[in-house]
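input
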Amino acid sequence: MPDRYLLFHKPYDVLSQFTDEKSSTVCHTLKEYIPVSDVYPVGRLDRDSEGLLLLTSDGWVQHRLTDPKFQHPRTYWVQVERVPDDAAVQQLRQGVVIQNYRTRPAKVKLLDTEPSLPPRDPPIRFRKTVPIAWLEMTLTEGRNRQVRRMTATVGFPTLRLVRVAIAHLRLEGLEPGQWRELTQQELKFLLRL
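output
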């Protein structure tokens, strides 16, 4: 049986796994959205994060994309509380210390406009007195809750986190909860990584 490669737009409040045996509350899982057997997520997105998730049955691809030594890029749009100054953005670019670990340098830019995303359900809390901003962050590592910890460390807590790219694979064209197979061109490039 040939390997499968799927892109999925993970909604907010969905676990990046097919079963939920540990939670004391009922949680949404991938099983509710993806009726394909023997595929597994490549990496994770936290329950409170959204966006692009790659699923595959190909163990080699799984290894290449999750092992930090291969440094494949992952891009996120990050809504933060308040507007980061140049010093905070520069700190994120250089790497910050979180949990006794210095993160690798990252590509970070302050977005001029709010990105076009579907509304989140439930919506982000809105406070008139506290401005928000959006960052685009590209990392080459993926530690647990890393983006949230990085922005908090420089004083700008994350309100919403959406992964928009994994290497060359993009979120465009998928609504929350939708999935599709990789195109031949996407797959060809992925297998060359």
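quick obs: The chain has a mean pLDDT of 92.
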